[in-house]
Design a protein that fits this description.
Blueprint (H helix, E strand, L loop, with lengths): L9 E2 L23 E2 L2 E2 L23 E5 H6 L5 H7 L40 E5 L2 E2 L20 E7 L4 H4 L6 E7 L3 E13 L6 E10 L7 E12 L2 E2 L26 E2 L31 H4 L18 E3 L14 E3 L6 E3 L2 E14 L3 E20 L1 E3 L16 H15 L7 H10 L7 E4 L5 E20 L5 E17 L26 E2 L2 E2 L2 H8 L11 H8 L7 E23 L2 E19 L22 E20 L2 E12 L3 E15 L2 E12 L3 H5 L3 E4 L32 E4 L8 E12 L6 E12 L2 E2 L3 H6 L8 E3 L6 E5 L3 E2 L2 E17 L2 E18 L24 E10 L3 E10 L8 H5 L14 E10 L6 E8 L33 E9 L1
Parallel strand pairs: 5-8, 32-37
Antiparallel strand pairs: 1-9, 2-3, 4-7, 5-6, 7-8, 9-10, 9-45, 10-11, 11-17, 12-16, 13-20, 14-15, 17-18, 18-21, 19-20, 21-22, 22-25, 23-24, 25-26, 26-27, 27-28, 28-29, 29-30, 30-33, 31-32, 33-34, 34-39, 35-38, 36-37, 39-40, 40-41, 41-42, 42-43, 43-44, 44-45
Amino acid sequence: MASAMPAWAQTTGTQDTTQEAATPTGAVPTTSADETEGKQSKGNEIVVTGSRIKQDPNNSALPLQIITQQEITRNGISSPEQLMMFLTSSGSGADNLASNSDVVTGAQRGTNGLSAANLRGQGAGATLVLLNGRRVAAHGLSGSAVDVNQIPFAAIERVEVLKDGASAIYGTDAVGGVINFITKKDFQGISLNGFTDTTEQGGGNIYRIGGVAGYGDLDEDGFNVMGAVAYSWNQILRGSDRDFVNGNQPRRGLSVDTRGTPIATAFNIGANTQPGSITAGGTLLTGLTLTLPNGANGASGGINILDLPGGAGCGSIDGGMAYDEQLWNTPSAQYACSWDTGRAAVIQQPIQTLTYYTKATWRIAGDHQVAFEVTGSDADSAKSFSNAQLTANTTNLPIAYPLNAATTAQYNTVFNSIRSAFDVASNPNRTAQIAALNARYGQPISYRWRCIPCGPREYRTNTNTFRAALSAEGPLWTGWDYRAGASYARSESSSVLGSGYYYRGTLANGAYDPNAPAVAGVGLINGQQARGLVGVMNSGLINPFSEVQTAAGLAALDSASAYGATLYGGRYEVKQADASISGPLFGIWGGDVQLAAGVDYRRETYEFNGSAAAAAAAPVIFLAAFDNVNALTPKTRDVKAAYAELLVPLFKGFELTLAGRIDDYTGFGSTKNPKIAFKYRPINELMFRGSYNTSFRVPTFNQIYNGITESPYAGSDIADPVACPGGVPTSNFGSGQPCAQIRPNIWTGGTAGLRPETAKQFSAGVVFQPITGMSLSADWWSIAVDNTIQLLTLRQLIDNASLFSDRFLRDPVTNTVGVIDDRWINAGSRRTQGIEFSYRDSFEALGGRFSSGLDGTLLLKKREKLTPTSAYGPSLIGVFSYAGDLGIKWKHNAFISWSNDDWSFSFSQIFRQGFKNGALPGIAAGTVTRPDYNKRTDDYIVYNASISFVGLAPGYKLTMGVRNIFNTDPPFTITYDGNSGAGSSWDPRVADPRGRSFTVAAEVKF
């Protein structure tokens, strides 16, 4: 009978399952027994993240946090992305999949499938991610940040988070800190596990299965071979699946700025004079004035038959709402409808990830160890957002609804509805305007339309990673050790178009594109073969004024589909070799002076592939964000470095650490970065620590080499900052008023002359351990970054136009803003300060052990200046922005748990303080007030609970939990961006959209 029960798998030298941390570092507190005659116990000394000298992590000058498997299990964390969101030391930037699920612009482009780390809000590119102390490749598309979801989570023993700059040890990127994922070591036996996280409201479920197997005891057999594999899949969650995603909340100051709706909005556009164009004579509303009740011209702002007097109402269609012309300062849109784009977007991306890890370790010639490890991943993700909006224009999209035998009934319905709405006694120009309208009967009707039959737009991305590492370590002579290794890492990603994308069918001038597919079931239109999406719409087979389409219309639409076309792809490689030695030099008053020294060589290679579908001769795919202008042949960067670290115990309880590193970078020359740190323990229960160091971050390949991408600005929230101080519009685009909305083109791309950004970091802290099992710490930190590499937001450029006048390209005749140059720039400085708190306590009671803890971060300062000579701007703590880090003032995680040999119970709280809400143009300009507008968002507070049982039989463990016990919705936040059309009524940088969920984790060990 006993043979049928599994025995515990083992990890030699450690506990079978990583236990709850007794202190913020996860180490055992120092006691008086550990120090005799000023000599510290060596039993706890290991090489920890941030140092090359072996030391006790709990008795170190480093502000190091160790996340144990127990903590990961207690909080139902199932992926590295969830762990990054959990850390209070993480910033609140657009670093997770939910933040990049919608339409993105600027620095977020190319983040398909990417989840990144962002310590202390310094940006994903300023946090160094390591696996077993060595680098992994950056994401193949972005070429800047590491995708943490490539980490083999099933093989992880612990995660070390160094909350300090570490360029003196690791080189570039270690500005905000270092996250080091440490895998299991010397594992023996077999462990199988499964995990489910099922939402109460449906959608967004998470599943994971995995296993670990190992054989061989390093001490007895001289070898160990282990492997781990895991497969996880996150199911899709759309905005329409959650009621809190609602862009139609005008009383709270939120409404959506799109007049492209499932029932089209008629617009006034001019003529396209290309041969065969159905708009060659203009369109129905061309040149007309139709006076609205508010006095504006409805022909220029759009007219939707649903919103006309006696109409069915904009809310009669799913996601529809009346256009809020006051919030968007667009009075001519009084009779327009809008549509809730946020409900169509994905708020949890579906992603399937396979990760694997294998490691073979040999003990040779005594205590020398040689190890070879291979890890990799294969992930498929799909970002999906709102259906395409078709906006008729006079150039490349000359679409209109024609009058022909098949369309007469619908055409007349639209025409008569518009005429009736303006043929009223209250219209002061009724007679002339109706006569002019009647004269244009028969002209096609131009429009903006949300193409629901097209399906949601979708990018499908595959990311494949591979990493191989060979390492050796062992003793040299008495007290001295060596460590050496070499590794190769690769991340390769490619994106293809899913649903929702179609060949446009026209050239840039509006003529039919002969390379675009001919429309099924449609012959000639005005003597020209109908091609692509324009041909479909101009045939009249698709009715933009109806939610019901014919089979012939859908077949015609399908014939223009671009499903499966390659969007772009990228590949990032890192080849690295390193070697170091460490050991004691000589003894002085406080103990042995210790030295570590090493060398490091690294070659990084990045390439970005465009798409044949975007070649000059290829037919244009409507709205596809091709990046052929950014295509890069392989670019290479070599890094050669040497470093040294010296630990000097000046007297009992006081240690001084000095470190320095010199790096030579291809294209940037040499940089030197020192570090000095101290630790002082006057009594066993109290320790003071502090550090000063410098760090740096070099520009990424994309930030240097990308070409210029020119995109039209579609928002309604900026004005010319010279003509209108403050740049907040109060009148329509084209109104001729000084504060009229402007619609310039926006340039984004690389800048060849970018230089590295540099930083100085300071920290000072205290650790108090009054009794065994209790530890409290507080660490003040300051990061001063100069020469910052950034994409300025349009609002920053507008607000500081006098500093960046060269970024506003104006028409030489009219002086209007034609282009805003928003390429990467070295811009000014950033100052960030905060205090990080940690508390742990444990004691025996009620037949078991109680444990409690708290990790919190208080942000004290966050300010920027945009040029070296300008003054620092106002505080950015808790200030909403569409991109970048929110700068949340206070966040914490707290827990309490009880456990005995068989049972474990835990209860935890996650707290994120509220911040200044976003504001749409009417409220921002002060011209509109709304009764329920909240200037600050509510705090986000969720509670989790779990119970574990191991008493069923040896080797079995069952954990069940509830996440978000009270089913708390994300706080209402105005995140809608009128330019990109992304965002809605909540912020994915702060909150989990899934709501209450139930977790089950099962593990069996043989």
